[in-house]
Amino acid sequence: MGYGKELILDLHDCDPLTFTRKSIKRYFRELCELIDMKRCDLHFWDYKDEKEEYEKAPDHLKGTSAIQFISTSNITIHTLDVLKKVFVNIFTCKDFNPLLVREFTEFYFKGKAVRETLVERV
Fold this sequence. Notes:
alpha+beta; 6 strands; 26% helix; 39% strand
């Protein structure tokens, strides 16, 4: 496997009701259980408590970004509320099944992966 791999998923036509902090936190928890990754720190960036700023922001910035550090690297997510899109990157030196991750992520966010890229790190 080399140093590790990174799976990059672009999902469209997702359900924005799954874009909350609570839901994203659950996604990370369930995904890490599924692929046997140990979760560490979790950080969010969004317009929580900034309704006026959210309203002024362009559509491609209205959403939630989060990074779930794992013991072997990290998982990041960016959601776009209005555009109904989710972007996920999983980078780790621990092996995992990319097909399983894609299927779980599509199911969880009720969307379709329109682009999937797997990068092998050497």
